[in-house]
């Protein structure tokens, strides 16, 4: 039991280190240098060179990476080149926004997707066709376009929700929820399509299993076969698809944050990339990778708990 | 499901992918739309009414007009012209970004599948790690380095996508590889990778098509997303994402702006997805689905119709035991699988249903509990137990019979038990449901039942999951489960086939003892005449969906009158020693014909050693020449009179040995 978990954790750590190296190299390949970005357009080359020297930009890459990694482990990601704010504390105020957005969208898409997928598999016929069509169309809608449509109907035509902006939870929980509703919906509809398809396929697969026939042969009520036994059997791939959705939506939140002007991590990296803010890009990528890796590990543990065949190993 | 049946079903559903594409209206609309967009985009400079960047400040943010068919943007630029001016780059980038991951993943999967486990494990670990990277965030970092060069960014994005794609292709490459013809090629020699390219790659072409279409759609989405975020082509060059970004800023004053670009983008993505989906459907041809929600409703509908024919049911009253009369089963497309099967069984007796795979034995047995798989229905005849109809009942009426009166024992015990629940929980919940007793009493009953099927450490088995016990143990559990409702009739579908020889005998002993102790009757499906001789009182031999011979076991086995029964006996290893003068095992040439290929006359004629022109007319079941029972053969009497036996093939090996020995 412990050896595989240890192996997983080691692989996760290796992935994180790998990503941090790649992004470190990427950031160094960015046009411009910290000195240039900090001093702005009017600066003289000698001033820029002096500042770069002072910041260690000319040190060997290995040394620079190790210094950066040593600091990063302690939560020191340095200061933003744009506004001089501490990157770590900035990220800590932004992370909850993105996590709330991604988690909310995952939850919404899981609820919609699982219900639709189960209904499609169980009822079949016209219901199945309708759900399939809905899933096919929803999966093809770009979130940023769907978001505009939602804003038009639910914020402009019928002003139920704010068209943009974010209210922190500790300021007003109800306004917080209201400010997140449209962004969450924007992301959730495509996710729901994905989960609905997976759920439908898994349920159909579960219903073709031979033990379902045994259950029927012992007069198990149909609702019980469908919603206890078959759903339980199908739960493994469904849970996996929900976790994948979280990962996808965590990345996809950039678009929703841009559209709805939410101060999340995606918004930070978008600004940082536009302004060549190397330390911020580096920090956000590493933190986002960490979140994704943790979710993957949790998924693996959940799978072990859900599947008795894996639990015993 | 039996192989010929699966083959018949597959043949009807696996048309060529391109044919399916042509047949699907949605996919054809998709193909047409893609063609229109591609051609219109490539030729945009020739036909669009305005240059894409020409501004007209007298017509800002207008809705469609005769001058500007799709209206204008915030600088008075013509939307139609900009849309298709942007299209060329968008489609080209999407195509490249879809091709890159395929160009990486397919060779990698072939290489990995053709190599040993170690290389595969290494590649798997690397792809797992790549899959754990948040793609969108990495793309943004890439944009920082490469600038707004969408072609370069999207190509590198393809490398990340390749990791996930590799998984898809590895799975398929391995399944193609495990198929017989590739294994044969391996025996012949040749480098593993060469074999992969020659034999496995063709098996992947459809999936490559599917994935290209789906990746094309994803790439369109992602690059439009990047342009939306401001990382598209530099201003003022048009891009779909950039145009939607502009529209998002004018939701209040010019909502029209989001419509044309959005719809073109959505339709293009939708079209590519539709093509991919239709191609994918043919890749995994549907097999038999026991979709209970659906088949239950179907059979309920049919049952409701049949229950009105109450006259029919009165015929069945007052005969004890099992009665199957004129039972016919067919696929929904009309193909008959079982035709006019009739037999009866007295209480306390055991009937063996015998025949090769694909003769309809299992389907006949399943219809005794109304458990036909989806797509197969009863088209005629009746089943009754102790005078009460079993066929034509609704699911709720059947639940009073299943488990309580008639119980099922499946062929593969491991698959018959729910892998997600412990043996104890499955047994206890079944006992509680069928006997309506409380949990405590049910637990005690579960232990007693396990004891009665010969399980010694019942408490350990109750705590185990099905995968933690052996096959023989699982079959004992499955038998206990079948006994949970104190049934009167057991239907056992090849209960020993999947088990080791030593375990087979033990399971038969358990069944024999239970039947005697509990006064149950049993219908046992088997292809093993040893099992029939061992446990049955009566036997019904089935061939190609028909009964060809019935009678008491001793009568049929000692004096078979149908050539098929003779052939089965001659081919059965158990009987060699018993039959005087027989030293070698016969084989029956050919195989059971698929249901759609059944001949009009005697269905066995093509494989029969004794067939003559008389056999081409249809034959009915007639009384046996000797003893009780029936036989379906025009020449039965004649064969019996001549004391004909099914000839074994010449045993050339022993002939050769004799020849060597002779000179000395």
Which helices and strands appear, and what pairs or packs with what?
The complex is a heterodimer of chains A (313) and B (664).
Chain A: H1 2-29, H2 34-39, H3 45-55, H4 61-73, H5 87-123, H6 125-140, H7 143-157, H8 173-207, H9 210-217, H10 222-260, H11 265-274, H12 278-306, H13 308-311
Helix pairs in contact in A: 1-12, 5-6, 5-8, 5-10, 6-8, 7-8, 7-10, 8-10, 10-11, 10-12, 11-12
Chain B: H1 3-13, H2 17-23, H3 25-42, H4 44-47, H5 79-114, H6 117-131, H7 135-146, H8 150-178, H9 180-188, H10 192-231, H11 240-248, H12 258-283, H13 292-307, H14 310-315, E1 322-331, E2 336-345, E3 350-354, H15 361-367, E4 376-385, E5 388-389, H16 395-398, E6 406-409, H17 413-416, H18 423-435, H19 439-452, H20 458-463, H21 471-483, E7 489-493, H22 501-518, E8 521-526, H23 529-535, E9 538-543, E10 546-552, H24 553-558, H25 563-570, E11 622-623, E12 630-631, H26 636-641, H27 652-661
Parallel strand pairs in B: 3-8, 3-9, 6-7, 7-8
Antiparallel strand pairs in B: 1-2, 1-4, 4-5, 9-10, 11-12
Task: Provide an overview of this structure.
Chain A contains 13 helices and no strands. Chain B is of the alpha/beta class. The longest helix of chain B has 40 residues. The interface between A and B is large, with 84 and 85 residues.
Entry keywords:
heterodimer; A: 313 residues; mainly alpha; 13 helices; 0% strand; globular; B: 664 residues; alpha/beta; six-stranded mixed β-sheet; four-stranded antiparallel β-sheet; 27 helices; disordered N terminus
Radius of gyration of chain A: 24 Å
Strand content of chain A: under 5%
- Oligomeric state of this protein: heterodimer
Count of individual beta strands of chain A: 0
Classify the helix fraction of chain A into a percent range: over 70%
Model regions low in confidence, pLDDT < 50 over at least 5 residues of chain A: none
The residue-averaged pLDDT of chain B reads 83
Percent strand of chain B = 5-15%
What summary fits the major beta sheet of chain A?
none
The most extensive interface between chains reads: A-B, 84 and 85 residues
Average pLDDT over all residues of chain A = 88
Trace the largest sheet of chain B across and list its strands.
Answer: 6-7-8-3-9-10
Class by SSE composition of chain A: mainly alpha
Largest sheet of chain B: 6 strands, mixed
Q: How many individual β-strands of chain B? A: 12
| Morphology call of chain B | elongated
Put simply, the count of helices of chain A is 13
- Terminal Cα span of chain B: 55 Å
Helicity level of chain B: 40-55%
What is Rg of chain B? 34 Å
